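Shipment paperwork, digital attachment
Item: protein structure file
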Amino acid sequence: MVILVRLAWIFATYYLPHVRAQGMSAAKDSLVLTWCGMRGLATLALALALPVSDAAGQAIEGRNFAVVTACAVLLTTLVIPGLTLPALMRVLKIQDNVELLGRKRRKLANRAQHTAMETLKASPDLDRLPDDYRELVTRRLQTLHTLLLSEESQVESDTLHGQKMAKYRKLIHISDSLQSQALDAARNELLRARNEPGVDPHMVDEIIHRLDQRTMILDR
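Attachment content:
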């Protein structure tokens, strides 16, 4: 019953939303997710924690049944699936698809960069910058997808960081504001993508983390 209930739950919450986007893969994934629904240790611990008798010394009715049931759940949902899961994945030929994950990651990064560039071009503040600053801000955002795909945890600032002189502070403030607006738009686009069927939320979170690093090194 535990396995059947989990199968119904996975079918409703995972298979149906992903079947069009992933096709046959959604069916395989649903089966593996169902078989990975391992339960029992906490259930058995709670059953064993039940007192043997009440305050009056009378045996707790149903305690033995609860312990036996917990053992049965542990056996059928933890031991058996745990031992057979590798074989099931081999039969279904499920393995990490590095190329597919790379394409999805690049698609998200390019989507974020496109949104950032469109936001930058639409901002009236862009015309308030001199040509060299406008080119620098544009170049930064044109390479945003490279940053979002980078495996490096630290992001180095670029040459504008060393030019903070008093006469440039207004221009720096405008360029920071433009970049901040563009990066915020890119972040919102990624958050929308996070709720779309077929998009890995962990991958989106990873790219958003790198986007946050870009935001942190804006010139102040």
